Amino acid sequence: MQSFTDKIAVITGGGSGMGRELAVKLAAAGAHVAMCDVSEESLAETAALCSEQVTVTSHLCDVSNEEQMLAFRDAVQEQHQTESVNLLFNNAGIGGGGSFVADSRERWERTFDICWQGVYLGCRAFVPLVIASDEGHVVNTASINGFWASIGPTRPHTAYAAAKFAVKGFTEALITDFRVNAPHVQASVVMPGHIGTGIALNSALVQGSTVTSEVNEWANAFRNNAPTTAAQAADVILNGVLTGQWRILVGEDAEIIDAAVRDDPEGAYENDFVHRLHAAGALEGLVVPE
Fold first, then answer.
1. Whose CA, among 1, 150, 184, 203, lies 20 to 30 Å from 269?
2. Which residues, 6+ apart, have CB-to-CB distance to 251 below 8 Å?
3. Bridge partners of 190?
C-alpha cells in the first residue's frame, strides 16, 4: 500500500491513545475513518480532531461482544456506502487480571476477552470486507508482553500477556493464510513498549474499579512519563504499513527488550534480567528487588 488517500480504515479503540492518533493521522492523509470505542464522549473528541475533508464515523461498541461488532460492521458498510474496507486496525485493549491465582475470574476474563477476543472478532467481522478490497492490510496490536510475559518478577501479569501472545501468534499465522487465500492482503503485528496513553485509567473504568486519587496519579504518571507518545507510536505504525513491515516494534524500549529476550530466553523472568534492561536504558521506572 503506497498511500492512504481514499482508503477506508476501521479502527477499534479510536477514542483515545494510539487509536485516536491513528484516526487523526489517517484522516489527515486522506483516508476515510470508521472508529469504535466504549466511550461516546471520547469518540466525539477524536472526531473533532479529524480532517473534515474525509468521512469520519463513530460507533459505540464493546469489541468483546460479537453482536456489537457485527452491528459495527453493518453500520460501517451503510454509512460509508461500501462493500469493502482497506485497513483494519484491531487496536482496542485494557489491562487487569494480572494474577490467574489471586484475581477474580471475571476480571481476568474481561481483560483477556477485550485484548484477544476483540482482535479475533474484529477479524471475523471485517476481514471479509478487507479481502473484498483491491488492496488491504490488517494491523493487530499486541505488545512487548506478546513476547515477554512480564512487568517485573514480583507482579503477575497473566491475562494481558496471554492475550497479547495470542494476538502475536494469530497475526503471524495470518501472513501465510493471506498469502495462500488472499495475496492482495497483508497482516502486521504491532508490539509497542511503554507508550504514553490513558490505558491505565481506561482499564480501571472498564473493569469497574474505584478510581482513587492514587490510581489517578499512577495513571497520569504512566501516560506522562512514557518514552514514546501515542502520536509517535501512530507514526511508527503507519510507516510500517506503508513499508510493508509485518513485525512493527514501537519504541526504543521495545527494541531493547526484544533483543534481550532473544538473547536469553531462559533468564527472562529473573530479577537480574530487569536489571540488565535498566542498564540498557529500558523500563527504568520498573522497580525490582536487588
1. 203
2. 192, 193, 194, 195, 227, 228, 233, 236
3. 141, 248
Q: 53-61, long-range: CB within 8 Å, 24+ apart, which pairs? A: 53/27, 54/27, 54/30, 55/79, 55/80, 56/23, 56/27, 56/32, 57/33, 58/14, 59/34, 59/35, 60/36, 61/12, 61/36, 61/37
- pTM of the prediction? 0.95
| Each residue's pLDDT tens digit, 178-205 | 999 999 999 999 999 999 886 765 665 5
- What average pLDDT does this structure show over 247-273? 97
Task: Show the cell assigned to 180.
Answer: 495462500
Q: How many CB atoms lie within 10 A of CB 193?
A: 23
- pLDDT tens digits for 117-171? 999 999 999 999 999 999 999 999 999 999 999 999 999 999 999 999 999 999 9
**For residue 159, what is its C-alpha cell?**
491475562
Annotation marks residue 160 as catalytic: yes
Q: Which residue has the cell 494476538?
A: 167
Domains along the chain with CATH numbers: 8-257 (3.40.50.720)
Q: What residue type is 54 in one-letter code?
A: V
C-alpha span between 79 and 206 (Å, rounded): 28
| Residue 59 bridge partners (DSSP) | 36
Cell numbers given for 176: 501465510
Strand 136-141 relative to strand 56-60: parallel, antiparallel, unpaired? unpaired
Q: Which of 120, 148, 160, 170 is catalytic?
A: 160
